[in-house]
Amino acid sequence: MGIFEVFDDFQQSVNANPQQVQIARHRRAKFREGLLSAPNVAEVVDSGSLARSTQLAPIHDVDLIAVFEPDNDSEWGQDGPSSSDALDTVHDLVRTTLADPGGSHSELVRLAKPRNRAVKCFVDNPDAEHPFTVDVMPALRNQDGTLLLPSKREQRWTTANPEFLIRRVQEQQDTWREYRSMVRVLKHWRKNCGTSVKSLVMEALALDYLPLQTNRPNALRQFFVAASYNVLGGVRDPAGFCGEIQPNLDLSALQQALSDAGDKSTLAIEASGRGDDIAAQWHWKSVFGEDFPTPPRKSPVPAVAAPPIRDAPQGAR
Hints:
alpha+beta, Beta Polymerase, domain 2, 2 domains, seven-stranded mixed beta sheet, 10 helices, 7 strands, 44% helix, elongated
C-alpha cells in the first residue's frame, strides 16, 4: 500500500461518521426551528466546527448563535447584568420550545444550563460519559455585520466575528479540496502533542501555514516546519477581535512539538522520495501516534536520524 492510500485510511479514522454528521445536523435544524419561533429572534447563525465542516469524530456538540432583534428599551449590549439576562432569555426560550418533555416544537433538551457565554443544552443524558450538547449563545448584530456577544463572568459584551472563519475556511477549501481534511488531521494531532491545545488554535494556525494545492504529506510537512518557526508569536483570533485564542497556552511546548513533527515528517518525505514507503509510514506513525496505520508487514522501526538542516520555510508569515 502506497503512502497516499495509508493517508486515506488514516483520514477515515479522523473524520466523523457520516451518520453522526447527519444526526448532528438534524438536531441543529430542530434547534434552529425552535429558536426562530420566537418573534424577537432575528436569525440563527451556525457556528463551531460543524459549521466549518472541520469536526472530528465523534461529534459531541453543536454551536449556534441566536441573534436577537435590537430593543431600545433593553439594556442588552451594555455592561452589567444584561449579559446574564440574555442567557436567561435563551434558557427560557429553549425550555419552552425544545424541552423533553413538553417542548412546543421538538422534545430534545433534557437539561439546559446557562454558562458564561452560552446555554449548554443536553440532548443526551447529562450523566453520560460524552453527552451530546448544543451550545446556544445570544447575540446582537452590529451595524458593520459583526456580533456583540455577552460574558456573564465579566458582565460585559464584546465584539466578535465567528462568521469570518467560516468564510475563510470555505475559501481555502475552494482553492484546495483537501484543506478541511488536513485541518481535521491537524486537530487530531494536537490531542497527543504533549501539551493542551485548543482545536481552534490549530484551525487558526492552518489558515496561516497550511499550504494549498500540494499533496497531503508535503502540506503537513510544510505546515509543521512553518508553524514551528512562527508560533512563539502567539495564536490570535483570525478575525482580529478577540486577541489570544488560548491565553494560557504553553507556546514553548507547542513550538517544540511542532518542530519535532516537522523533523519526523521531513524524514518521512525523504523516505518516500527513496521509494521506501514502509519507512515513510513508520515516520508518519511517529508523528500521529497509534491511530496512524501500522505498516502491513514486519519491518524495523527506522532509527531517528539527526534533524535535517533546514532553511527558513518559504512562505512563512
